[in-house]
Structure formats: C-alpha cells, structure tokens
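Lab meeting, action items carried over

1. Structure of the two-component assembly. Owner: GW. Status: complete.
Input record:
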Amino acid sequence: MIGAGKIKQYTNVLDKPLNKGRHEVSLGAFAYLFSELVQYNQTQVDNIGELERRLEDAGYAVGTRVLELLCNREKGNRRETRLLGILSFIHSTVWKVLFGKVADSLEKGTEHEDEYMISEKELLVNRFISIPKDMGSFNCGAFVAGVVRGVLDNSGFPAVVTAHFVPVEGQQRPRTTILIKFAEEVLRREARLG
Amino acid sequence: MAPAVPRSGDAIFANVERVNAELFTLTYGAIVRQLLTDLEEVEEVNKQLDQMGYNIGIRLIDEFLAKSNVTRCVNFRETAEVIAKVGFKMFLGVTASVTNWDQEGTCCSLILEDNPLVDFVELPDTCQGLYYCNILSGVVRGALEMVSMKTEITWIRDMLRGDDAFELQVKLLKQVPEEYPYKDDE
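Predicted assembly:
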C-alpha cells in the first residue's frame, strides 16, 4: 500500500532509490554477526573442509550482490571483459567499498599462468578471530574468498578462489592471501582478445 | 557524582571503528538464507535467529558498558531510552524512539524507522511468517539479561510485512537481583 504518511511506502523493493552507500555500522556489530555465522556453521559440519565450503558459499552470495550493486553505482553499468580489468576492480573498488581500503597487493603467480593473488596484512573478518591449534589451516577468510569468487563468477570469469595464511618474517600474525586460479576458458579467451 | 559523563550515541559512534553497512546487510542476508536452506521451517529460523541474537547480546553488553560510560539506570524507562538512543546508535548507526509506555512503566515499544539489516530485502511469499530482524530481539534480550533484567521481546510492526516502521515491544518480566557467586564465609 502506498501510505500517505511521512515516509513514502514502496510496494516493491526494486522501486526504492539506491542509497549512496555512506551508511555505516560499528565494526563490533559486524564482528559479532560474523562470529555467529562461523559458530552456527561449526554446529552444522563435521570437518574443516565443509566449514570452509559453507563460509565460502555465504560469501559467494554476498559477492554476487556486491557486483550488481557496484556495477550500477560505481561504474555506471559498464561490464569488465578483461582479466586485469576485473582483478583491479576487485582489488580497488570492491575492497574499498566493503573494507574501507584497497587491498594491500595484487600479484601474478610466478609458477602458474592462471594464478593471481590478492594479499592483505589482516583481513577485516579475521580481526577478532583466533584459530585453535587443532583446526590447522582453517581460515575464516574463506568468506572473503567466496565474495571474490561470487564477483568473478558472475562477471564471466569462473575461478577457484581460496584463502591462505602466509607467515611473514618479523610479524606475529600471518598475512592472508586470496589465491585466484582461473579456469581454462578464461585464459583462452584472454589470449584470443590479445 | 558519576566519575565520567555518559557520552551521547553520536559521539561514541564517531569514535568507534566503522564498516560499510552494506557488508553488514549482505552478510546478515547470507546468514538468513543459510538458515532458511538448512532449517526450512520459518518458525525454526525465527528461533535460531533469536538464539544467535541472544549470544551476541550477552557479549555486546560488555562493549556497550565499556564504551558508553552510562551510569546505572534508575528505572526501566531510563533503560529503554539508553538502549534506543545510545545502544542502537553505537552499533547500528541509527537511533530508535521509545513510545507506548504502559501504566506501570514495564512495557514499551522501540520504533526503528531506518534499519540497516533490511536494505535491499523483500520477503517472498514462501517466507511470510519470517521475522527477518529477529536477531535484534535476541540481542536486546541477551544484553538486558546480563544486567539482571528478564524481558520478553516481540515484534509488533515489521516493515517487510507492509507496515511503516519496525516496532519492537520490550516487556520487563522481572528484575533478577545479582547473585553473589561465592559464599561470604568461604
């Protein structure tokens, strides 16, 4: 119903104007919410691989929506078709909007042609999380890996994305690297486009 | 005299670290979606959201008390005002208003016009019984329980169901005096 009150009621959420994206919530609120997400998923799975997969799936959904939102708002509905284009979009625009800063670095893998890495000293989602020893290499950055995979998949760049801890000399907390391994077809297309 | 003046919600919010509300909104949406896929029953999802909110609330109250320097509330009216003006502002960046006090002063409504949890959200027909923001009711309940107030929280109005605002009814059931965990003579 379109109400006559002080707020215009929109019957369809798609008719509502998109806000400019200046709205903020406290870091604490997000941290609590993320911890509940991880805790809930811990009760649903038996092993770490499953847990990472579930976090990634949650992130994938976020990535899909972030791509749509940002394409519309930041880039005026232009679509990235080149590999470096989409990578720098993720590294700067997506990171800036979601985490408030651009990612620390974007590197091309030396061993394989299809690997790229986005590194971050401390992922926002991992800030208040400590991994117990018996969980080995589990990384809650799997959520962020899912976000990246969501953005890439929906832009037409299918890839396998994972998050890894990389120990750094002289630093107590290891760096986090998001490893992106593109599918064959992406590299073939990229080669064709010259 | 209170040792420190209680800070206003705006001042605290300006001082805490903040993140983009869209990340928050989308993460919450992912959580609700996961719950709906796993549990399938809307009532179950409501309960699980409330439980998650409760877990958050019992931890959130510590951060709230530490950062806001509020003095002990004299009565429930003050409590509700503090939650609406300082609490919501500090964590969600929006203020709520308090209305509909009953005669004894134990039941009131918190009205939220702007809710970062529900940006971009529309409830499909299959989920009509879902209280999408039920996590908020759990948070308030958990936080108040940690300061010795047992409450019952229900949603009166829900914008996703066609109302014009979010209205949360907070009913004080009883004040539980704090139990000293150790016997005095031990």
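2. GW to write a short summary for the group page. Key points so far: The CA atoms of residues 53 and 142 of chain A lie 8 Å apart. The two ends of chain A are 54 Å apart (CA to CA).
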